[in-house]
Write a structure and sequence with these properties.
transferase, 7-stranded mixed beta sheet, LD-transpeptidase, mainly beta, about 10% helix, globular, single chain, 5 helices, 4 domains, LD_TPept_cat_dom, SH3 type barrels, 7-stranded antiparallel beta sheet
């Protein structure tokens, strides 16, 4: 019962540094690190990226892929793309399960790969055996047709686990649900009574209109869209049990949690875990089941829809100038200081951007900064983006670089000396502490090493013992430190992470689409290399 994929989003603007001609990337086979220096990322189909690549030439046109050529698809959570037709070669990137990409008509080799090594676009080689296949009728390719929507800040529908939930391997009968879920009848009575409240939708990141660069192009609506229950939890209109779950499970296990084919349940998911969803349908016991990206099932009565923050930064090319500020405290006020006192002059909306003049003063021990409209705001209620007194050496020409201030809790995108985007962030909760012994963000000048549309992080990122599957827009730049979206909170402008740079989904996508290396079409992850151009500079300072 394959379903059509959604229309492809518009491609980000091209630029010379992003030419994909003869693209070659580099990646290692280790699991991705989480933000904490000691953390171990969960192995849910993750391919970590790292190593230099080179190009190989072949004069046989049938061994070279063309845009309208046949395709090859991923049948495991991550199907690696290699630098050379050799399993020992550096990995260039990967496809996500169910995804396909263009390949050559004929393989270049059969060495250690009975299905054949095929060149793929825009570069690299994939083995059509095990992780990938040329059979477009393979059950995984027919079943997992929903791709991440690269045009939206939240690339999948997301949810958080409200109560410990089972990860079902196949559709459970009513008796099996009662067997595997403790106090289920009581839970279902509560859900029936409180369902409207529990499943209530908020206005989310995907409701904010964006321009071609990913800048917010308008305000968020007052209310969320009118979604059906099916759509809320990842479905696209059909509540029937999918063909691949009828009469038992008809597709192989691609999750890292291995079970026999006759299993009913794989494991359980802890409360507060985050999940990306790709379908939903009604099952036995009048319960809706959601399909996760690794082809497992979760009852939606145990889930809370998560739509991400509507917060976003400002386009610095549209009249904004440094310094500017973002309100990070609810209930903040602006003040009239004409009488030499802190006279409140109206509230300021949480997350509002404020154009500053650069002037500041103290009233007693309270430091205030002046807004362009003549009002004043408390320094401790805003995150302030300022231009450094001295730009770093790389701030020349049109070189793109990301500036991150730990004390100010802001991220500024620069092209040479010119700021083009600014926003509030949430860095390591221990501020300027030693990253080796505290939950502080590493400082220094780095480059983007690898980029993932989504990837799994563990509990260390947010300080609780639960996993975060399919975290969006992840960009690693040093060891386990990354810039990424954080759909689980809305606290930007104040430190709170275990070392990573947390951004809102809108801002994380804006940064991801702006940095190098660009993500090749169809790929789920890519790495910086000599062939793609170096990764964008990340400059982190107090």
């Amino acid at each position: 019962m394959p379903r059509p994929s959604p229309p492809a989003p518009p491609s980000p603007p091209s630029r010379p540094s992003r030419l994909l001609t003869a693209l070659a990337l580099c990646v290692s086979a280790l699991a991705l690190p989480a933000c904490d220096r000691n953390a171990q990322a969960a192995p849910e189909g993750i391919v970590s990226l790292s190593a230099a690549a080179s190009n190989q030439q072949d004069d046989d046109p049938q061994k070279m892929p063309r845009p309208d050529g046949p395709r090859l698809g991923a049948v495991q959570m991550a199907a690696p793309i290699f630098e050379r037709p050799d399993r020992r070669a550096p990995k260039l990137g990967y496809l996500r399960a169910g995804g396909t990409t263009v390949r050559a008509e004929k393989p270049v080799a059969l060495d250690d790969c009975q299905g054949g090594w095929y060149r793929v676009l825009p570069a690299g080689y994939m083995c059509a055996e095990g992780d990938a296949t040329t059979d477009m009728k393979h059950p995984i390719l027919r079943a997992l047709t929903r791709r991440p929507d690269l045009g939206k800040p939240m690339p999948y529908p997301y949810a958080f686990v409200r109560a410990i939930a089972p990860n079902y391997y196949r559709v459970p009968t009513k008796d099996e649900q009662l067997r595997y879920e403790m106090s289920l009848e009581r839970h279902l009575r509560s859900y029936k009574k409180l369902r409207t409240k529990w499943d209530e939708l908020n206005v989310g990141a995907n409701d904010v209109p964006l321009d071609a660069l990913g800048n917010a192009a308008g305000e968020a609506p007052e209310g969320p869209p009118a979604f059906s229950d099916n759509e809320i939890f990842g479905g696209r209109g059909d509540d029937a049990i999918p063909w691949f779950f009828k009469g038992g499970r008809q597709i192989p296990n691609i999750a890292s949690f291995k079970v026999p084919q006759y299993a009913v349940i794989t494991n359980r998911i802890a409360r507060k875990a985050g999940l990306a969803l790709i379908d939903s349908f009604m099952g036995p016991n009048d319960r809706r089941l959601a399909l996760t990206t690794d082809a497992r099932l979760v009852p939606t009565s145990k889930l809370k829809p998560a739509r991400g923050s509507t917060f976003h930064g400002v386009d610095m090319t549209k009249g904004w100038e440094l310094p500017l500020a973002f309100v990070h405290k609810e209930g903040a006020y602006k003040y009239d200081l004409s009488k030499g006192a802190l006279d409140k002059d109206g509230k300021i909306a949480w997350h509002s951007p404020i154009q500053l003049t650069g002037r500041s003063k103290f009233i007693g021990k309270t430091r205030l900064v002046e807004a362009k409209d003549g009002s004043w705001v408390r320094n401790d209620e805003v995150a302030i983006a300022v231009k450094p007194s001295e730009l770093p050496p790389h701030a020349k020409g049109t070189t793109r670089w990301v500036d991150i201030s730990i004390l100010n809790q802001v991220v500024i995108l620069y092209e040479g000396p010119k700021p083009v985007y600014a926003t509030a962030a949430a860095t390591g909760r221990d501020g300027l502490g030693d990253p080796k012994t505290t939950f502080s963000t590493v400082r220094g000048t780095f480059r983007i090493r690898e980029k993932h549309v989504t990837t799994t992080m563990d509990s260390h990122e947010s300080g609780n013992k639960f996993e975060l599957r399919d975290v969006p827009w992840v960009q690693y730049f040093e060891a386990g430190y990354a810039i990424h979206a954080s759909p689980w909170h809305d606290d930007y402008g104040r430190p709170r992470s275990h070392g990573c740079i947390n951004l809102s989904p809108i801002d994380a996508r804006r940064v991801f689409m702006w940095t190098d290396p660009p993500l090749p079409a169809d790929w789920h992850g890519v790495n910086a290399s000599a062939a793609t151009g170096e990764g964008t500079i990340v400059h982190i300072h107090p």
